[in-house]
Structure formats: structure tokens, C-alpha cells
Amino acid sequence: MAFNDSTESAGPAMPRWETIVFDAAGAADFAPASALDALEADVARAARSLETRECPGADRLGWLDPEAACPAAERAAIREEAERARADCDAYVVIGIGGSYLGARAVREALRGHADGPELFFAGTGLHAGATARLLRDLRDRDVRVCAISKSGTTLEPALALRFWREFLERKYGRAGAARRITAVTDAHRGALRALAVAAGWRVFAVPDDVGGRFSVLTPVGLLPLAVAGLDIDALVAGATSMRQACREPRLRDNPAHFYAAHRHVLGARGFRTEILSAFCEDLRWLQEWWKQLFGESEGQRGRGLFPAAATMTADLHSLGQYIQDGPRDLFETFLCARETAPALRVPAVEFPADPEADDGLGALAGRSLDAINALAWEGVRQAHVAGGVPCLELTLDRLDPRTVGGLIHFFEKAVAVSGLLLGVNPFEQPGVEAYKREVSRLLGRR
Ligand code: PA5
After folding, report:
1. From atom 12 of ligand 1, which residue's Cα is the shortest distance away?
2. Taking CB atoms and a 6 Å cutoff, what residues make up the pocket around ligand 1?
3. What is the 3-state secondary structure (H, E, C) of the chain?
4. What separation in Å is there between the alpha carbon of 219 and the centre of ligand 1?
5. What domains can be seen in the chain, in order of their start residue?
6. Residue-wise pLDDT tens for the chain (447 aa)?
7. Is 340 a catalytic residue?
8. Whose CA is nearest to atom 2 of ligand 1?
9. How do strand 307-312 and strand 203-207 relate by DSSP bridges?
10. pTM beyond cutoff 0.90
């Protein structure tokens, strides 16, 4: 673990992992060092209970060791399947909801510049007939494959979507042709989707028994669609594995995930009940959605947990900016920004007409990179929000590449596990979702 030179002597330490820095200077007045120190033993205890598999949900900890959750041989089989798909389709329809699609979508969007395969489409993410009909129509003349992902195999939205897409493929390619174009990712031993796949002769990949939906992006659930999209899945897993080491550091201030979890806990206890993940990068919009699920579903139990919200900057400064700056002081922000997204994009010089009114005052920015301007906007926003009473944490990624994004995924997974345990909940279950499922099933006459 190295430290950023500029703050080694002044202000709080900033844990750095390869290409990601966690900086809590903007929260120092709200989460003082004494409160963090007081929590250090609890954080260490929570982390130890994960490592020794003695915490609640101990049978759901497969994600903790990314290499074991999807070993090299499994990744080779995924790559082989992906090559087959890349050879005969240009539209890959991923059917799944919640943890069975958000991770793949998040990584795909964050790494747009690295993908080169068939276009990924996502289905089964709702019950909107219009959206389903539109996608079925739009892909009529494309070479289509389908990947049905559901650990339980019985989730309403993907189960219905699969009916439509199976019919679509059978009409287009015949029954045998369709069977070659459907892959299932589901429970290793049981469930309706597994039974269906085996009966129809579809290729099947298994979701590890010890990994729950929202922690499953670095298993076949996320890695298969991402490999089809042409992304380097080994680099994703390697990034997560390396981050795992950083997230095992015993000292709170050396451990990025623990330091983040401790800040969230202290801020939550002091009345900051909403966390806004503010990304200064539009390609991270789906990563924010994945994060919302990861933290919302893992922490929000028994009246506890922070509300996970998201803002995409700078667009949302023009909608939520007023509220964040000046609304109730019960929220804090975690900024997420990549330093370099397209360094070659520099602002063109413009020649202004003689009329001084035509001068927008931005002439000095000619030749500056848009990434550098974005970073300055971020700094300005951070300063304004801190001054307005909003604690600000910052996660800076040097760049968006598979290794960095793999590291970021593990960072958040480890942080939410520790956060949930600090709150006294089981971060690997979601008992609350059963209530609405029961009601919907009753209305649908589901057995
Ligand atoms: O995190 C979770 O466990 C959930 O969000 C599930 O991923 C989601 O409900 C989909 O479940 P399944 O994969 O069983 O269809």
C-alpha cells in the first residue's frame, strides 16, 4: 500500500491500491479520527469473521476469493463458449434481473472502449410489454443468441422473457438451431432453469453455491456475457484478486475497503443516512446501479442501513445539485471518477466575433483536455459541497480498464460485507424481498 505524496504529512491518509485511491479528506470534519479509531477493533472483528467463515451468511462467501469463485479452467470454458457466440451472432441477449444482470451491464458500460464483440442487449429486467416487443422487433434481422441467467431459475421476469426469446429463436432457427443458441447460467444442482436447459440440450454454466446474486459478477453470471463482449475476463479477476490482498491489510487506514466501511458507519451513526454515489463519468452510470443494489439489498434490513442513491455528474448538478448543496443535511457523497477516459480529446479553439457579448469566457480552455476540465469541475463541486455541510469521500480511478474495474468490484463487495456486519445484519440475505414476491405470486395465481 502506497500513499499519495501530497497528503502524507497533512490531513488524513489515503489508502491507494494500484490504480485506485480512496480519499476521505472531505469528510474529516464529520467523521473525526477519534470516531474512526474507536471503530477499528469492530471493523477488524467483522473482517476476521469473514475470513474465518464465522459471520452470518458464512455459506455465501465464495466471492471473497475471486480466483476460487471462477478458477482458470472455468474461465477457459467461458472463453471457449464466448468464441462460439462471437463467431455466429452480432446480438447477444442477456436475460436476467438484479444480481443476475447488473454486474455484466455495469462492467460492459464502464469498459465500452475495451469491448469489440457482439452487442449485448438486456431482457427480463421488467414486465414492460412495450420494451419487450421493441427489442424482439429490433433484433428480427440480427444474428441472435440468448443467455438466460437465474440462480433460482424461478424469478418471474427472466422466466417470462425466456419464453418470448425461446419462441423468437425457434421461429428463426428451428428447434435444434435454437437449442444451439441458448446458454443457461443457473444453480449447479437444481431449479427450473437447470431442468429446462438439460431437457432442451442447452449449454449450462453453474453459479457457485456459495455466491449470492449481487456478489456474482465475477462468476459465469457476469463473466460469460463480458467475454462475449470481448472483454479480458482474466484481467477482471486478476484485478479483484490483487484488491483482495489490499483489503486484508490489518490497519484500518491501510485498508481501502475497511476505511470506506468505517466512514460510512460513522457518518450513518451521526445522522447522514443517505449516501449518494456521484460519478463524474457517464460510463459509470450502470456501475452506480450495480452499487445501489449491492448496498441497498445487503444493508437495508431491520430498519437499518443507508439509502444508496446515485448522481451522474455533471448532468445531475443541473437537477439534484440544488438539493445536495442546500437541502436537508442528512446525506453524504462518495465521488467516483476516472482520471483518464480519452486524453486525446482537447477543446478546439474558437474564433469569437468582435461583439464582446459573444465571448462566453471559456477561451482559456482551448487546447485543454476534457478529462482535465472534468477533474477541475469535480474539485470545485467537492469544495462547494463540503462547504455546504456535505461530507465527501472520493474514489479516484487512474483509468477505466478491466484490472481497475475488477479491483473496484472487490473493493465494494468487501466494503458492503464489513458495513453490513457492523450494522448487525446478514449482508448476504435479502429477507425483505419475499413479502412483495408473495403478493405478486398470489395475484398471478402462481403455484
Ligand atoms: O442479489 C440477489 O440475490 C438478487 O438480486 C437476485 O440476483 C435477483 O433477484 C435474481 O435472482 P435469480 O438469479 O435467482 O433469478
Report:
1. 150
2. 97-100, 150-152, 155, 158, 212-214, 297
3. CEECHHHCCCCCCCEEECCEEEECHHHCCCCCHHHHHHHHHHHHHHHHHHHCCCCCCHHHCHHHCHHHHCCHHHHHHHHHHHHHHHHHCCEEEEECCHHHCHHHHHHHHHCHHHCCCCEEEEECCCCCHHHHHHHHHHCCCCCEEEEEEECCCCCHHHHHHHHHHHHHHHHHHHHHHHHHCEEEEEECCCCHHHHHHHHHCCEEEEECCCCCHHHCCCCHHHHHHHHHCCCCHHHHHHHHHHHHHHCCCCCHHHCHHHHHHHHHHHHHHCCCCEEEEEECCHHHHHHHHHHHHHHHHHHCCCCCCCEEEEEECCHHHHCCHHHHHHCCCCEEEEEEEEEECCCCCECCCCCCCCCHHHCCCCHHHCCCEHHHHHHHHHHHHHHHHHHCCCCEEEEEEEECCHHHHHHHHHHHHHHHHHHHHHHCCCCCCCCCHHHHHHHHHHHHCCC
4. 14
5. 2-55+238-348+364-428 (3.40.50.10490), 62-231 (3.40.50.10490)
6. 232 323 333 444 577 788 899 999 999 999 999 999 999 999 999 999 999 999 999 999 999 999 999 999 999 999 999 999 999 999 999 999 999 999 999 999 999 989 998 999 999 999 999 999 999 999 999 999 999 999 999 999 999 999 999 999 999 999 999 999 999 999 999 999 999 999 999 999 999 999 999 999 999 999 999 999 999 999 999 999 999 999 999 999 999 999 999 999 999 999 999 999 999 999 999 999 999 999 999 999 999 999 999 999 999 999 999 999 999 999 999 999 998 888 789 999 988 777 878 788 898 999 999 999 999 999 999 999 999 999 999 999 999 999 999 999 999 999 999 999 999 999 999 988 888 888 998 889 887
7. no
8. 213
9. unpaired
10. yes
C-alpha cell at 33: 479520527
